[in-house]
Amino acid sequence: MSQPMHDILNPAVPAGAYDDLLARVLPQARAHRAWTPDDGPLPALFVSHGAPPTLDAPEWLAHLFTWSQSMPKPRAIVVVSAHWENAPLAISGAAAGTPLYYDFGGFHPRYYTLQYATPDATDLARRIAATLSSTTPLHHHVDRGLDHGAFIPLMAMYPAADVPVVQVSMPSLEPEALLALGRRLRSLRDEGILVMGSGFMTHSFAVFRRPQLQGYTEAFDEWATDALGRGDVDALLDYRTKGPAADVAHPTADHFVPLLLTLGAGTAPGQSVTTAFDGMWMGNSIRSVQAA
Q1: What is the pLDDT of residue 269?
Q2: Where would I find the beta strands (DSSP E) of 5-150?
Q3: Which candidate, 234, 176, 220, 183, places its Cα nearest to that of 44?
Q4: How do 76-81 and 165-167 pair as beta strands?
């Protein structure tokens, strides 16, 4: 997956690839078969999301949509994004029409007018609160909409915007904390609720400026993929020490630790993890995985 840097950052039609996707798949998205109890638990997902230029990458968008179509349409979605760290735990606004949180800067004005008007998610917010608040203080930010770590991938995965969504904050950037949060959300999968960690398998701005560093991000991606395949959760928890070139691939923890959320939400952390799609984009790995 490769596009010239200029085309990515200065597209002729901002979000034009997304417009094309909608024109092709919206009827299919609306007809997507809904989850039933006979389907069993939904998988837990880790999605590598991007900033608004994701919406100008047709292959990436197609991967995301195809992935969503490979499973029944969830009753609801709970997302933990790299872009919201808050302690105590917090959940986003649940009312229909809560405005999106455009937590990015320097892009074309069109990206700040994007809409993703998901249905009322009050029941989901209550279900999350019942799951988490018995032992953890929980704050409800009623005016905080979905940030781009949530709405950008979901716009491609569920473009009909017909699934209730609530975002949950990261309690810290400690991998163990995200693994534990995933474990607490695991039971929601039995109810047809999709649990999703949203980050980036590698997240290096340095590689944008110095493409010769891509070998380091590729090495980290290969290591993480091997650890996932072996079910080595301990190694992934200790990625700073164990992962090659971790300081290049992840100078900050925020985009990696949502992967631990996904592993925690899996039925057996470290087992039955498969890659949904992979590739390199602007020098970084967009590998996205699901845990049964």
Answers
A1: 66
A2: 44-48, 76-81, 89-91, 138-140
A3: 183
A4: parallel
